[in-house]
Amino acid sequence: MIKVIGFDIGGTLMEYKNMPNVWIDYYKTGFETVRDRLGLHISDDDIARSVEVLRGYNPKVKYREEDIAPEVIFTDATSHWKCSFHLEKVIDIFYRSMGLMPYIYPDTVNTLKKLRADGYKIATLTDVATGMPDELHKSYFPELMPYFDMYVSSLSCGYRKPNPKGLSDIAEHFGVSPAEMVVSGLSSGQTVISSANAALHAVTVIQIMTDTLKTFRSNSFLFICTPPFPFYLIISCTAENENVLSPYISKTLQKACRRKKFLFR
Predict the structure, then answer these.
(1) Comparing 151 with 259, which gets the higher pLDDT?
(2) Which of 102, 206, 220, 234 is deepest in the core (most CB within 10 A)?
(3) Is the CB of residue 145 less than 8 Å from the CB of residue 103?
(4) What is the residue-wise DSSP string for 24-43?
(5) How far is CA 187 from CA 175, 180, 231, in A?
(6) What does the alpha-carbon distance between residue 239 and residue 145 come to, in Å, rounded to a whole number?
(7) Strand 102-104, strand 14-16: pairing
(8) Closest to 31 measured CA to CA, from 100, 101, 91
(9) Under DSSP, is residue 81 helix (H, G, I), strand (E, B) or coil?
(10) Alpha helices in 2-153 (DSSP H)
(11) At 185, is the pLDDT very low, low, confident or very high (cuts 50, 70, 90)?
(12) Residue 17 and residue 260: Cα distance in Å, rounded?
């Protein structure tokens, strides 16, 4: 029996309208804005060096699961600046100058309300952008926070997906087993599936959840956790997006799910 439902946030419950297509492409502009706003005497070469340092912390450039505090990252990225500044202001201006505009999906609040009314505990499991403070991250969706019984981010648990630490923290907090949890979230192929048996088990769980989640986004990724907390990725999709999602799904799993008439109908 499912007792706890977890959600990723960005791309699942909401999105940022002005989010850069590639965060790295914004780094130079971000540091230039910091220089201009704070009147810092740093050169273009200083900024270029800061960009390279920050780029080195981006997990898409250099894979890592352990998350790193923003203060550590930006201390490193600004260590060569020969001027005085407040690190907290540098970080805040860097990210706020992106002008991110949060957009809460129309079905999000009603879905969360219904799940809580039905007795489910709601948790989040989300990765925070490299170097972004958790409090700033949460400031983009304050209207959603009251619906979360537990907020877990890569910063709060110390690890990014697909590391199981966040799931372990959620299960321990609520005193549930992995079989009593389901996590829904858009995750850009972070998980590689190789087990058809996992797919069949997950389909059973998802069928139980169908009535509750029927209004939810059709392209959501659904995670089901089983001991000892590996991630399994099950995708509710339509024929139109099959080509986009196929690279993330093993051939064995595709066949198994076709037999169950769940994926790639």
Answers:
(1) 151
(2) 234
(3) no
(4) HHHHHHHHHHHHHHHT----
(5) 26, 21, 11
(6) 34
(7) antiparallel
(8) 91
(9) coil
(10) 23-38, 44-57, 70-77, 87-96, 108-117, 134-138
(11) low
(12) 36
Say which residues have a Cβ less than 8 Å from residue 17's Cβ, sequence separation at least 6: 100, 101, 102, 103
**3-state secondary structure at position 256:** helix
Place of tokens 């339509």: 238
DSSP reduced 3-state for 104: strand
Residue pLDDT, tens place only, 186-219: 443 333 233 333 433 343 333 333 333 333 333 3
Contact 3, 120 (CB under 8 A): yes
Report the C-alpha gap between 164 and 159 in whole angstroms: 8
H-helix or E-strand spanning residue 125: strand 121-126
In this structure, the number of other CB atoms found within 10 A of the CB of residue 210 comes to 9
CA 82 to chain centre: 35
Whole-number Å distance between alpha carbons of 101 and 169: 30
Q: How many contiguous H segments (helices) and E segments (strands) does the chain have?
A: 11, 8
Task: Read off the tokens for 70.
Answer: 């923003």
The encoded tokens of residue 20 equal: 């850069």
Q: Is the pLDDT of residue 258 over 70?
A: no
Task: Give the Cβ contact number of residue 232 at 10 Å.
Answer: 20
CA distances from 86 to 74, 82, 138, 236 (A): 11, 13, 22, 46
d(CA 136, CA 96): 9
Rounded Cα–Cα distance for residues 175 and 143 (Å): 27
**Largest distance between two CA atoms of the chain:** 64
